[in-house]
Amino acid sequence: MAPLLAWILLAAPPPAHPPVEALLAAHGLGAPERTARLDAVAQGLADRLGGTTPPDPRTASGHLRWLMQAQGLGDAVVYPFTLRHRDPEEVAPALTRLVAQIDRKQPPTHLGVATRAVGDEQVTAVVLVHRGVRFDAPLPRSAPLDTVLRLSGDLRRGYYRPRVVVQPPTGPIRERPAWTDQRRLEVNVYLDAGPGAYGVEVLADSVDGPVVLVNHPIHAGEPPPSRPTVKLAPEGADTAEHLLALVQGQRAQAGLPPLRPHDVLVRVAGEHAVELAASGRLTHRSADTGTLRTRLKAAGLGAALSAENLAQAPDAHAALEAFRRSPGHARNLLLPQLTHAGVARAGAFWVLVMAALPPDAPAP
């Protein structure tokens, strides 16, 4: 009888994840819920960093956004973290730096972790999100044209009066209330303005003012993108003046007059940009200076209408794209009543302050 040869393929065990959950608990961040969808996002980040070609850091935010959208996730508050290491113990001190940037008023509620082996090293990716609304079903990436989508979910404690802002491919931006007396979010989204991407943003009030909870595009009458699309800005696109010029272009395309620069608005924007860079996070409300309204009042400037757009981006073009992807920020750019503006940048943080002022508004 011929000998029986058995071939056994032993697959290498996957690399062990560092004890991220324990590290978060040790820093007073509780126990965020681990989810498969966020694990998939983390795996995409680990794969990207572990590739043979070093990724361009300017494309990082676009890649993360695409990974989130591919999983039907539109969480607006995301804390990503990636690290190459040889020993899982190296993750703890590096993760401490991430924790220091987390806004304790919007702590992580959900978590994804992935680790990829790259030669004798490992790449660990952690994705933390603060989920202000838990939808009954994942947000769709695409839907048939001329249909009505019903969005529903539970609102997290601390938020109230949710509303949905929809930016259709054509036509005006729409806003409608989305709350019920059971603290639920319930709203219909109409995909009736032609084929293209419908930006869907969920806003809610909180003790710190209005906050963006969800920002997610839904493609109607066209397939969603199969890969990230990132536009790199040309040289010299890293100044506040360049961003203002881009904003003026957006208003000109809409048939609106340009915004006139105003020294006080520039100063208010600059001071807030410096504060954002020092804290490492985007927020319209400051523990020291309050809201935009209080900052303008402290600067001696009264405005019948004001608006503030914030972005964390590597250049002015990316900052404008961030504004355009947010239906609420996109609407602010095209408010016809606004007359003056001030733009500032501090590191990767951009602040655009706009106001409706009389033509001869003084500049104290």
**Uncertain regions: pLDDT < 50 for 5+ in a row?**
1-13
- Residue share in β-strands: 25-35%
Tell me the series of helices and strands, N- to C-terminal.
HEHHEHEEEEEEEEEEHEHHEHHEE
Q: What quaternary form is this?
A: single chain
Question: What is the rounded Rg?
Answer: 23 Å
The biggest beta sheet, please?
5 strands, mixed
- Estimate the mean pLDDT confidence: 86
> How are the strands ordered across the major sheet?
6-12-11-8-9
The number of helical segments is 9
Helix amount:
25-40%
Which characteristics define this entry?
4-stranded mixed beta sheet, 9 helices, 5-stranded mixed beta sheet, alpha+beta, 364 residues, globular
How does this model look, in words?
With 364 residues, the protein is α+β, with helices and mostly antiparallel strands. The chain contains 9 helices and 16 strands. It has helices at residues 20-26, 36-49, 60-70, 91-100, 240-253, 263-279, 292-298, 316-325, 327-333; strands at 33-34, 77-85, 110-118, 121-130, 133-135, 142-143, 148-155, 160-167, 174-177, 184-190, 196-205, 211-220, 260-261, 305-312, 340-346, 349-356. The strands form 4 sheets. Strands 6-12-11-8-9 form a 5-stranded mixed beta sheet, covered by helices on one side. It has a 4-stranded mixed beta sheet with strand order 1-3-4-2. Strand 15 and strand 16 (349-356) form a beta hairpin. The termini are far apart. Residues 1-13 have low confidence and may be disordered.
